[in-house]
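Quick one:
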Amino acid sequence: MTSTKYFFILICLSSFFAKVELFASSSYFTSQLGKSVDVRKVFEDEEGRASDLNSLISKKPTLLAFVYYSCPNSCELLLRGLALSLSRIDRLMGDKYNVIVLSIDPLDKASLAAERKSEFLRSYQAGFKRQPRADGVHFLVGGGASLLGVTQSVGLKVIRDEKTGEYAHPGVLAFISPDGRITNYLFGLNFSVADLDKGLDGAAQGKISALIKKFIVVCAHYLPLEAVQSQKMMGIIRYSSVLFLMIMGATLYLYSKKGRPV
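Output:
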């Protein structure tokens, strides 16, 4: 077998294991592209005012993000990364589009939402040097049927660890059209200007698009008990794949040093 063939096999194996990781994480998310967000649900904003999502979207393309404000893990990174990337987009936040950040923790309070909003706006202004419209950026809290209705309509699954009070959830943005439909998703913690522009353009036009990025990053310090076995299996698969690739690499190296045909 030639070294080219070996290389091709290694690439295929790497792609396979990347897909295994994707499918393992997808238990936290089910795409609802083209469907409507439950915009009738009422939440409390950072100033303690009650508002439904429909009035907050206010006929503009909207970015809907899910975090929790006391998160000790990646939620802060998601918000900071989002603010910095949005600051580099030509369109002004609150003018051409809205941003809604919804806490998945029903115990979060409006006062904490206000702190996170202030941090978000500072990060945004540090890059854009312009003042966004305050009525276009909303940090919400709420629980019960309202929270469950929205997370389910977006396809988000949240798992709470009862011992620590922390949540496992995907890092995801949903692009919402002016009429409340989900037009796209964006996953991760850092977002490119091109991806955000593409998503906002699609939302403004009401155009349902293929997922911009499909790799799901899960924010979780502690994985709940029901996820432990699958995570152990994923660990075995990862380590086995690395060991296999190392052995294959060493074999190729030894053959090449001896000058034998491979």
